[in-house]
Amino acid sequence: MAQQLFSITYSLTQRDIDQAVRLSKLYYTDLIQKLVKPYGPTSSLCSSQVEIEVRAYLEEALTGFHGLCVEALVAKEVSTNDVVGFAIALSAPGSTDCGLNYAAVRKDFRRQGVLRVMLESIKSKYSFIGLSCHPDKVPYYEALGFRADGTVFVQVSMSWGEDKPHPMMNTFDMGRSDELQMCTQSFLKLHGAKAEAIMQNLGDVQIKRMEDVKAYYQRRNDGLSHEHAMAYLR
């Protein structure tokens, strides 16, 4: 039996957080709840949004400063101790439910069971896990026991575990983030008079994508395969 090349831990260090945030920057188009182009005019603003939010939750998992129910675990390469994956789960006090806010795996460690091991660890602590992901990621979560049960903005909502009423989970109000406001001001300064049109176009893209994702989910719900349902999104 091959030796496992990674281990997982809930004991974060600042180095772990920095490396996980770098992963979030690399894969921000997968993580953000918008449809964005990797090198489009809003790419810097969107990647900053993901980085700032991921760092905020990882820091909260480390310090507990704000009293939120945040758990974070990282997968680390055995030979280098570098972070190759991370997952962030939010819950409510005394609840056995959680929401998977973010999860990412370094590209060269994919298809090695990293996400599966991280999620199995989270499953051992909770009776319900909810998440949302872009349609192209749905089969990966289905293979891990999750079911598609609706849509949220431009993503498909999925869940694992008991189907029951779920408590509200406390989250950060990122709209009040000084860092994010500074990034927004930099974006406005960079693009000047074009900024409003760029943001309007981004909004139009999201509205179109929301309808497409609803259609994807409906087709899956009607029995079509992922591949056939995705054909309408391309």
What does this structure look like?
- InterPro entries: Acyl_CoA_acyltransferase, GNAT_dom.
- This is GNAT family N-acetyltransferase.
- GO terms for molecular function: acyltransferase activity, transferring groups other than amino-acyl groups.
- The protein is an alpha+beta fold.
- Helix content is 42%, strand content 21%.
- The chain folds into two domains: 1-126, 3-Layer(aba) Sandwich (Aminopeptidase), CATH 3.40.630.30; 132-161 and 193-234, no CATH class.
- It has helices at 14-26, 28-31, 43-63, 114-123, 138-142, 178-191, 195-221, 226-230; strands at residues 6-9, 70-77, 83-91, 97-105, 128-133, 147-152, 155-161.
- The longest helix has 27 residues, at 195-221.
- It is globular and about 50 Å long.
Biggest sheet layout = 7 strands, mixed
Name of the CATH superfamily of the largest domain: Gcn5-related N-acetyltransferase (GNAT)
The order of strands across the largest sheet is 1-2-3-4-5-7-6
Tell me the overall shape.
globular
CATH architecture of the largest domain: 3-Layer(aba) Sandwich
Q: Alpha-carbon distance between the termini?
A: 40 Å
CATH topology of the largest domain: Aminopeptidase
User: DSSP strand (E) fraction?
Assistant: 15-25%
- Weakly predicted, low-confidence segments: none
Overall strand count: 7
Oligomer: single chain
Helix-strand pattern, N to C? EHHHEEEHEHEEHHH
Protein name: GNAT family N-acetyltransferase
InterPro entries: Acyl_CoA_acyltransferase, GNAT_dom
Domain N-acetyltransferase: 7-179
Keywords: Transferase
